[in-house]
Amino acid sequence: MAGLDPANWRDIREIGHRMLDEVFDRMEHVGEGPVWRPMPSAARQALKEGLPENGHSLDDLYERYRDLVVPYGVGNTHPGFMGWVHGAGTPVGMLAEMLAAGLNANCGGRDHAPIEVEREVIRWALQMTGMPQSGSGCLVTGSSMANFIGVIAASRAQDLAIRQDGLGNRGLVGYAATTAHGCLPRAFDLAGLGSSALRRVPVMSDHRMDVTALATMIEADRKAGLVPFMVAGTAGTVDCGAIDDLAAIGAVARAAGLWLHVDAAFGALACLSERFRPRLDGIENADSLAFDFHKWAQVPYDAGCVLVRDSAKHAAAFAQSLDYLVREDRGLAAGAPWFCDFGPDLSRGFRALKVWMTLGHYGARRMGEMVDACCDVAGDLARRIEKTDGLVLLAPVTLNIVCFGIEGLEDREVSELVQDLHESGIAAPSTTRINGRLAVRAAIVNHRTTTVHTNRMLDALIALRDDRLQAQTAR
Questions:
Q1: Using an 8 Å Cβ cutoff, are 269 and 263 in contact?
Q2: pLDDT at res. 471
Q3: Residues 128-183: tens digit of each pLDDT
Q4: Residue 243 belongs to a domain with what CATH number?
Q5: Confidence (pLDDT) at 201
Q6: Is there a domain that residue 148 lies in?
Q7: Over the stretch 177-226, which tens digit does the pLDDT of each residue have?
Q8: For residues 46 and 246, what is the distance between their CA atoms, to the nearest angstrom?
Q9: Measured at the alpha carbon of residue 289, what is the angle toward residues 283 and 295, in degrees to the nearest 5?
Q10: DSSP assignment, residue 305?
Q11: Domain that includes residue 242, residue range
């Protein structure tokens, strides 16, 4: 039989309902098991079989999934997960993913309803950040791609001939703080500019870009015959969550005629918080903006977003005229502009549905309250650290990230403590470096995380520290 539909639809309905029920069971009780557990070698080996010649039954594959995959996930749905910046997802987003897969829409272009859903999501994103409704945007894998699109749009706005002629020896340079995410120098690399073309601006004691140094560096590069074309501010740095002075950076960029890009991978969602929105003043002036719905907005992976103030410049950087992708006035090939005109992908999944349903169900106010709650948990954790002997805050807590050091231990030992904590299943923070010192980093992004979970994490870490210090004393 050449077709791939089931011979018996009733059977697949039954197992589908069982799958759905078990997913809901796991989500309802997600905080009751370990955050993470190491995957045993037997389970890894079981996932190394060759390509099946005749295939397996769906029941068999589902059992393998339950046994080999479910117990050994990343852990980011668990309220004890505080590592990196991972959203936790919601039941609504999970259902939306299922619905989107059922439609199997290609959102690269053409005239159909999923395209209109993504257009509405982009309008919502423009409204949320204060950018003009005349702007453009698209959903992408994540902020790495969104920042790359921002760099491409900025460089082509500087000189559109790059699209045909290449970069040549134009001497284009951009600017970002030393604390900017690593995807920005990588974007310069992938764009053909070279990572060294991204000038790293020093930061002040509060980990925000030194705007005076930025202006000085731009002037010096111009005098050296280089061509400054963009500056990237950050709304929520990857290490400690600091927010650059976007208004001041924007003023410098405007005065120098530079494109203002903002990497707001998780910080953009603070625009929905009445309490924290003022800290992002100036984000509305961005020429391009990168952020993720799959972080603080709790949309299932993946769902990044790029916004561009000038839709004509955005399209000029990516659109192509191809005989096999002609745009018509009517029929399925109508509906221009298409989303493939705003980024490198022609084949694009229906990412918008899970964003549309998540924001549509919870609403801006509730999402803003969730942001506030995460920041409250982070603030409580910071206050407890300040009162605990042998622990020290290593950076101000601007939003939802708490970085702290452990006195009496070398960096290697701090790293080992965090690994021990992961393997205990109690909690999963991560690490970073603050002013050269290894820090334990707790990012409160999960909407399920409360002070109960941060206290449990800290209690376990202190116990592990005390055991290690006692062992050192006994030697």
A1: no
A2: 82
A3: 999 999 999 999 999 999 999 999 999 999 999 999 999 998 999 999 999 999 99
A4: 3.40.640.10
A5: 99
A6: yes
A7: 999 999 999 999 999 999 999 999 999 999 999 999 999 999 999 999 99
A8: 50
A9: 95
A10: E
A11: 105-349
The Cα–Cα gap between 450 and 377 comes to 6
Order of strands, edge to edge, in the sheet holding 437-443?
Answer: 391-393, 401-406, 437-443, 430-434
Q: Is residue 407 part of a domain?
A: no
Q: How many domains does the chain have?
A: 1
In the structure encoding, which two tokens stand for residue 393, read together?
């805050």
**pLDDT in the model for residue 1:** 58
Residues of the chain with pLDDT under 50: none
What is the edge-to-edge ordering of all strands in the sheet holding 288-292? 136-140, 304-308, 288-292, 259-263, 227-234, 172-177, 198-201
Q: Is 139 helix (H, G, I), strand (E, B) or coil?
A: strand
Evaluate whether residue 129 is within a structural domain: yes
Residue with tokens 């902020």: 143
Per-residue model confidence (pLDDT) at position 438: 98
- Report the distance separating Cα 402 and Cα 392, nearest Å: 11
Phi and psi at residue 230, to the nearest 5°: -155, 155
Burial of 143 (0-12, 13-18, 19+ CB in 10 A): buried
Question: Are 30 and 79 spatial neighbours (Cβ–Cβ below 8 Å)?
Answer: yes
Mode of pairing for the β-strands spanning 259-263 and 227-234: parallel
- Closest Cα to residue 316, out of 162, 185, 168, 167? 162
- Cα 136 from Cα 139, distance rounded (Å): 11
E-assigned strands of 287-400? 288-292, 304-308, 391-393
CB count, 10 Å around CB of 251? 16
Nearest-angstrom CA–CA distance, 312 and 304:
21
Q: Among 258, 293, 262, which residue's Cα sits nearest to residue 280?
A: 262
Q: Are 107 and 265 in contact (CB under 8 A)?
A: no
In a domain, 469, yes or no: no
Q: What tokens does 366 get?
A: 């509730």
Identify the bridge partners of residue 369 per DSSP, sorted by sequence position. Answer: none
And the tokens for 333? 């090939």
Q: Using CA atoms, how far apart are residues 65 and 110, in angstroms rounded to an integer? A: 36
Spatial distance between the Cα atoms of 273 and 372, rounded to a whole number of angstroms: 7
Q: What DSSP line would sit under 178-224, residue for residue?
A: TTS-THHHHHHHHTTS-GGGEEEE-B-TTSSB-HHHHHHHHHHHHHT
* SS3 assignment, position 436: coil
Q: How many residues does the chain have?
A: 475
Helix (H) and strand (E) counts in the chain = 14, 11
- Helix, strand or coil for residue 177? strand
